[in-house]
Amino acid sequence: ANVTVTDLEELQELLMVNIENNKHLVTGSVRAKVLKWGEDVTEFQPPPDYILMADCIYYEESLEPLLKTLKDLTGPDTCVLCCYEQRTMGKNPEIERKYFELLQMDFELEKIPLDKHDEEYRSEDIHIMNIHRKQT
């Protein structure tokens, strides 16, 4: 695959270190780019086949920019896999509830059952969602 890994500007050096440390596993291409949620994503077009999200649901003020970015990045055939650790402390349960409520306005969600997760890494508090744009 040809992969673009994204994070904020201040984490680009760490992304490059991770790419370098894992280049022996790569059979396609990997590049690191800055992606700030809520901002212009035209340089990431056309829509990717897959978007992998890991632990992106944590700040209430980031929900709207994250959802805007997902809407802007996805096409009708884009598959979004969202993995997150369900947290029970503080405002986290409310933030997760709000995120999935807002997400369902434009996307269809399918929770991947725990028995389909990797045996070595599965955990009751780790959830994986298969997300697609709603058909218009």
UniProtKB/TrEMBL annotation:
Cleaved signal peptide residues: none
Gene3D superfamilies: Vaccinia Virus protein VP39
Keywords: Methyltransferase, S-adenosyl-L-methionine, Transferase
GO cellular component, as recorded: cytosol; protein-containing complex
GO molecular function list: methyltransferase activity
Keyword S-adenosyl-L-methionine (UniProt): yes
GO biological process: methylation
PANTHER family linked: HEPATOCELLULAR CARCINOMA-ASSOCIATED ANTIGEN, PROTEIN N-LYSINE METHYLTRANSFERASE METTL21D
Name of the protein this chain belongs to: MT21D methyltransferase
The organism of origin for this protein: Grus americana (Whooping crane)
